[in-house]
Automatic annotation (TrEMBL):
Cofactor: L-ascorbate
Gene Ontology molecular function: any one: L-ascorbic acid binding
Organism: Spongiibacter pelagi
Domain Fe2OG dioxygenase span(s) in chain numbering: 77-181
Protein name: 2OG-Fe(II) oxygenase
Pfam families: 2OG-FeII_Oxy_3
Coiled coil: none
BP terms from Gene Ontology: cellular response to hypoxia
InterPro entries xref list: HIF_prolyl_hydroxylases, Oxoglu/Fe-dep_dioxygenase_dom, Pro_4_hyd_alph, Pro_4_hyd_alph_FE2OG_OXY
Alphabetic keyword roster: Dioxygenase, Iron, Metal-binding, Oxidoreductase, Vitamin C
Matching PANTHER family: EGL NINE HOMOLOG-RELATED, HIF PROLYL HYDROXYLASE, ISOFORM C
Amino acid sequence: MELPGAVPPELAERLLLRVIDMEDAEFRSAGIGRSGDFQKNRFVRSDEIHWFTGADELERDYLDWMESLREAMNRRLFLGLFDYECHFARYAPGAFYKKHLDAFQGRTNRVLSTVTYLNPGWTVADGGQLLIYDKRDGEEQVVDSILPLMGTLVVFLSDRVPHEVVVAHRQRYSIAGWFRVNDSINGQLNPPQ
Ligand SMILES: O=C(O)CCC(=O)C(=O)O
Ligand SMILES: [Fe+2]
């Protein structure tokens, strides 16, 4: 689901200024998988990420906005979403993220994926589209191609929707996040990241 202009403009503007300003040292190469099986795999993805901790007002404002979405969706759709985790992502020119799922069926507590885009004036020539795949006639095909335009919010089911970020030709900023259900045992929530 692509929602152009869904992000409050003033919030999107502050997030963009922040991410543009961040030092290289505040990012790390994105790995695949969770802490246990963490491996850096530059063949699969070459973006750099910075996890939100809620340590400052801007991160809290974004998390608060997502919290209001979480409550609205739980109220109307009875999804039982428990919490939300997210990170800034920076794709340098040439960076990509090959086709993947954000969750493997039954194996993680990520239910809904969100991506907020922070790139004013992005055009097709800049590449970096988010491709959405679906099974059509028994074959997985691209069914949507989304430009990472400032203010656009994309939401999809984490374990159902294969997606891919094609090579970006200019610096591309986004915030990827996941609403999770609580599948904890012994009151211990699955570790994030
Ligand atoms: O930035 C995007 O368009 C999507 C990123 C993504 O798929 C992810 O971080 O899992
Ligand atoms: Fe993803």
